[in-house]
Amino acid sequence: MHTDVNTLFENLWENYLNVTPSADKIHDLLGSTQKDDIINDHIALRTFNIEKVGLEKLAAHFLAIGYKECGEYHFEAKKLYAKHYEHSDPNQPKVFISELLVEKCSPELQAIVTDMVSQIDESAVTADNFLYSGTHWQVSTDTYKQLLAESEYAAWMSAWGYRANHFTVNINTLAKFDNIHNVNQALKDAGFSLNTSGGEVKGSPEVLLEQSSTLADEYSVTFSDGDMSIPSCFYEFAIRYPKADGELYTGFVAASADKIFESTNAR
């Protein structure tokens, strides 16, 4: 497993940029001339609650480099469970890992997911590159569409596998912007489409976190029976507010995260 947190995030970022070309353009748009004010607030990863690849297996990669478990979240309608992790160095990105509760899904979905996971080599899960290793299987376009009809989350995993589902710009550290509304306006003016599920801005100063996100890029995937362009990954934007003790809130708001998941929905 990685010993260096910076190397891990550099690799996750490069892998993410490969299928999210808009992220580079957004970086240029929001950053000052030095670009060093674009701090990554958090990344998110997806998986299934099958022991071989469960949330804890992904978390192990982060626990090994100084992260600790901080909060848990339930998404009943989407059949998801999640935890978030923070590094001992508060300047390092937070990590949000979710898993699909496969047993709550249809027998058909369970069979497809079980088959996909069975194709992953045990040793791959602990390898340095697992968190950005993509898919270890290939499904057909029909299988993808079948999963999509039941769970966008499962369909996304079938096409993209293990990689950062999104990175997040920390608005608190930007030189050119001091609120989420101006960030959103700049993105729209530049032609980017925002996720409007639950409103363009999810959350509020009252819950100490405001978030927005682009809609995922459309990117071509090679399925077992041909290529198809589908939603890949997206870019999120977050501004955090101080708690009563003056420290910035570092957690997540389940009601907001629930809508952020929908950034990868088909347009």
From TrEMBL:
Give the enzyme's EC designation: 1.13.11.93
Respond yes or no to whether keyword tRNA-binding is given for this record. no
Sequence similarity: Belongs to the 2-oxoadipate dioxygenase/decarboxylase family.
Q: Which UniProt keywords apply?
A: Dioxygenase, Iron, Oxidoreductase
What are its cofactors?
Answer: Fe(2+)
Q: Which domain of life is it from?
A: Bacteria
Annotated protein name in UniProt: 2-oxoadipate dioxygenase/decarboxylase
What species was this sequence derived from? Pseudoalteromonas fuliginea
Looking at its record, which EC class is this enzyme?
A: oxidoreductase
Q: Which Pfam families match?
A: HGLS (PF07063)
